[in-house]
Amino acid sequence: MPVKVGCSQCGKQLNVKDEYLGRKLKCPQCGATFTAEIAKTSRAGKLSKPIAAKIHVSKGMIILIVCAIALPSLFAFWRYGPGRVMDDWQKALPDSLVVKALNTVNCEVMVNPAIVNGDSDLFICGNDAGAKGKVSEVLRAFGWKSLIDLGDITNARGTESLMPIWMRLWGHFKTPHFNFKMVK
What is the per-residue pLDDT for 85? Predict the structure, then answer.
């Protein structure tokens, strides 16, 4: 991409490829040698056009970033086990009202279950019936019709354990817009 540089001797504005920035160039007008730097102003004193920075992110860099985020998360999942954090939180803060829900859907389906074809079930668990009732009201306002109460907060381990199969199904269906339906 061409950029404007100015001769430090005579002020002549030149268009050069950006790869020449920082190199020594010879001015065609006065013959002086100068280091190619982006021109701050033109001869008329107006500001030159700003240049947008180009950022190239390779596939390798993306993989590195994903691994830097995913690997510690997976380690924590397997080290502490699914639901363990919720259990510990409830034990550490016994007066808190912890309710676990929405583990089996992505964020768009959470607030609009109608985007999934047909009705599906949503699991909910927690230690306080009143708190579960409030969360159930919010979920029904989103459009959830079938809520399955799994009991106390220790059952969060079960709902969180569905994540590996959920990820596989996302790959299979090529969309995160799905959920589970329990049939008796």
Answer: 64
pLDDT in tens, 51-82: 555 556 666 666 666 666 666 665 665 556 65
Q: Per DSSP, what are the bridge partners of residue 126?
A: 99
What type of residue is 158?
G
Domains of the chain: 1-53 (no CATH), 82-173 (3.40.50.720)
- Per-residue burial over 23-32, b if 16 or more Cβ lie within 10 Å, else e, is eebebeeeee
Q: At residue 43, does pLDDT exceed 50?
A: no
Q: pTM of the predicted model, to two decimals? A: 0.54
Contact 13, 6 (CB under 8 A): yes
Query: Could you give the 3-state DSSP secondary structure of residue 169?
Result: helix
Q: Which of 89, 99, 121, 103 is nearest to 164 (CA)?
A: 103
Where b means 16+ CB within 10 Å and e means fewer, 40-51 reads eeeeeeeeeeee
